[in-house]
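#struct-help
A.M.: can someone run this one for me? Single chain, 718 residues.
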Amino acid sequence: MSELTAVQRCKEYYENVYKNELQKLEQPHLALDECIQHFLDQRPSNGKKYSSKDRAIAFASSNFIYESAAISRSKRMSLALAKVLQYDDAIAHDQLSFLGFNVPDVLRWAIRYSKLFTRENSKLWMHLKASLNDREWDKFFYVCNELNWVLKPFQTQIDELESKLSTLNLISFFSYLSVLAYDKLQDVAQLERYQKIYHRIVLNRLKKSTSKDFAITEMSIAMSLKSDLSPIIFPTSDISSHCKNNLAYFSELIYATGELLDYEESLDWFSFDEECSYTDQPAPSVIFNTSDQGTIEWQKTNKKLRLLWNYWLKRAIDELIIRGLHDIQIGKPENHDLNQLAYIKAIRSELMLKEVYGFSDKLETDSGVKIDIFMFMLFAELNSVFFQQDYIDEFKSIYATNGSLYQSLSMLALNGLMNGMQNRFPMTWSTIEQKVDGLIGWSVSPEFPRGNKNITKTIIDSWTIDLKALSEENSHVVPRLNEKPFYKIGSYLFQFPWVVAQQNNANSAVNNLRRVGARRKNVQQETNRIEQLVGELLRQKGMNVVCGYHPKFAEGQENPGEIDVIAYADDVLLLIEVKSGYIRSSRQEAWLHKTGTLRKAAWQLRRKEASLKNALLSDSELRSRLKYQENELPPIFKSWIVDTSLEFDGKEIDGYLVTALETMIIALRDEKSFLNDFDELTADDELDVSISSLYSNSFSINEFIQVIESGKVWNELI
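D.P.: on it. Structure tokens below:
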């Protein structure tokens, strides 16, 4: 008998899981959901022998794919099918037609989740449109066509504009973009939106770059500036028609890209928001929300982020005083206030990175050099202060007087030349060596009172993206402009003041290290450290804590996996699954987190909960460490997902509460008052902290449970 193929092995695995679960649960839809959990968790896993496509083909060809009654009641089938639909040849057309006729709602959500409808030339999509033609499918196809159609004019316009600008080299391209980025600085409410637009424009340009774009010299930079930047900010007469035309093209490109991104957000809304419905009747839009709950929740998350800025900043001010830095002059007297604020912000980020994301005092970089986490953040904050003060604030002051973009940029550049020959162009550049020499003062420490070149370069490298390498990569994780704000082209580093001055360096650092740097070798250590930190917080409140517990399991049973944190006191037992990620900025990222990381966490908790209940009564060592002497389970047994993200704070995933780690920190430290805006604090608030205490008398474990489950930390604030 020939050896089974990878697909056949996976299919056999899924059908066995389904069969075994059906015997235990006796309900086909529950057995199917359990099988789907295995599929979504990329099981079976056997090194690299099974690919995602192997699993998708196997799942789609399994016998249970025709169990329409079970599929219609399944919670997860749309998610599983969305994974299958990522491939044009993972599911047979007859199977797809069967699903379309028998479980149409399940398949329509799978199409939305997978965004199959945006792949208009997909054989799967064309087959569906040809074979399904009842009223509901016709309406669905109409809406999908409308959503795709509305994007096309803007994409066509973008393609035409990029073609007109294709003769510009990378330096000239950045010059025009930077000039117009300054023009948008006045629109404060839209700054984040414009940053996303610029990011897309830059990425599109890099995709079309050639090796010549990155082979730059001082002479080639000078020639580019002479032809495409100097005539704008230093015109000898009128701006040349060449520059005028390119500025016009760039203005149109910024507008068209913005419109495209707005409509892409509508696609995300349709694809990932379960409250988004649709119609084929005349209306302002073919898609609409059945309620505003999703929008309200997203707004609440953003409000929490803003309030947490206050929280960590107030913690940082206290820490500044503890470290004895509050009455020390930092830098020149005229720069002291801004420098001190940079120190406070750096401490803020340091505290957050260590307490929420598990970083140690030293950050180990890819080169192996360890740098102080505070210095890493101080460097970023001083960089922002420099560009904010010397570029953006000065530009805004000049612009407020004359109201002319080009004249203001000209005066800004001239002021820089008169003030020590500083480059105050709309973008800055220098060789890597010059940048290191110029910023070495930002690496001053007791150990290196004059700074250290190696450390300075290592910090710069950690904030740098090589644009040539980026243009050649097919990675799905692309740094946003603010996550790696030094851009390497050849042996030169470029920076955009309109990015650096206004970025939230704490969020940028988190995403630099956790989103872009998700594969760093120390991420697992950081996650383990978070578990220990959570345990220590609970231990300080009188709970007996065990971290990293491995439940015993019999041969043939599935390994439930390590339990991150167990805490017990006063008849209360907490089982905690810790999840750590990055700061999300879109509905799609939030949806992926919910249906991926948090779904898996809830599935893990269910198995771990059962194992822990057995261990509490049978494992004498565990009982001793928890000081648990009872012969029955504690009356209060809580299983929580503690997440470093905020999007689902206070929500339930498959019956398990998700609480943000920062919410838990505030509750355990009883620091809700720190969330208030600075201008909302009164003298009484500052004198009598008990006014805003989360607890009726003093801290208790039972009341802590109530605080978390009721959302009391955020009540009246969001």
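A.M.: thanks! The longest strand covers residues 572-579.
D.P.: also worth noting: Residues 664 and 708 are 7 Å apart (CA to CA).
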